[in-house]
Write a structure and sequence with these properties.
Protein name: Cytochrome c oxidase assembly protein CtaG
Number of strands: 9
Function: Exerts its effect at some terminal stage of cytochrome c oxidase synthesis, probably by being involved in the insertion of the copper B into subunit I.
CATH class of the largest domain: Mainly Beta
Number of helices: 2
Organism: Massilia consociata
Keywords: Copper, Membrane, Signal-anchor, Transmembrane, Transmembrane helix
Subcellular location: Cell inner membrane
Largest sheet: 5 strands, mixed
CATH architecture of the largest domain: Sandwich
Radius of gyration: 25 Å
Number of domains: 2
CATH superfamily of the largest domain: Ctag/Cox11
Low-confidence stretches: 182-191
CATH topology of the largest domain: Ctag/Cox11 (Pfam 04442)
Length: about 190
């Protein structure tokens, strides 16, 4: 066999292998996002909303006045702001519709986009903590030096195990990517 022909055949084989590897890497990268979401959803980590989190306010719910649960409120800021609940704790009866408020202050001289992720402790509480309205359901855009009061309306499912007496509702509020254009900056780019 001619050495040039053999070299050409080896080059074609190598090219074929490289193309197959590149296609497989692209497919893996494309499939990684939905696989990651599924894994996080199954494990209950890094999920913005829990299954069944968007619920309507209870109609004729039975409030269990024989039980009182202390809901402790916590706020963690990961970004250029102050973020905290307006009260540290509240006593709640299962089935009772409750409103609490969190306050955020953008301390920057620029607009920022942010998102809040809730977490619950103990973990067994997660399916029983039903939020009707929450600032965590969508991204928040805070203008320069803006202060905002944001409500959370929730109730605790009366099916919560009786041994649970305390619940911690914690939010981590963090800046998300993407620049926020101010109105004056938008008009400058149009001109």
């Amino acid at each position: 066999m001619n050495p040039n022909r053999k070299l050409l055949q080896l080059n074609r084989t190598m090219l074929t292998k490289l193309v197959v590897v590149a296609v497989m890497m692209f497919g893996f990268g494309y499939a990684l996002v939905p696989v990651y979401r599924q894994i996080c959803e199954v494990l209950g980590i890094n999920v913005l909303t829990q299954p069944g989190e968007f619920v309507a306010a209870p109609v004729n719910s039975q409030i269990d006045k024989t039980r009182t649960i202390v809901v402790e409120l916590d706020g963690n800021a990961q970004g250029p702001w102050r973020f905290r609940p307006t009260q540290r704790s509240i006593d709640v009866h299962p089935g009772e519709l409750v409103t609490v408020t969190y306050e955020v202050v953008n301390t920057q001289g620029r607009a920022v986009k942010a998102q809040a992720i809730p977490s619950y402790a103990p973990q067994v509480v997660t399916p029983h903590f039903k939020k009707v309205e929450c600032f965590c359901f969508q991204e928040q855009t805070l203008q320069a030096n803006e202060a905002r009061q944001m409500p959370v309306v929730f109730f605790i499912d009366p099916a919560l195990p009786r041994e649970v007496k305390n619940i911690t509702l914690s939010y981590t509020f963090f800046e998300i990517g993407g620049a926020v254009q101010t109105a004056s900056a938008a008009t400058r780019t149009v001109k």
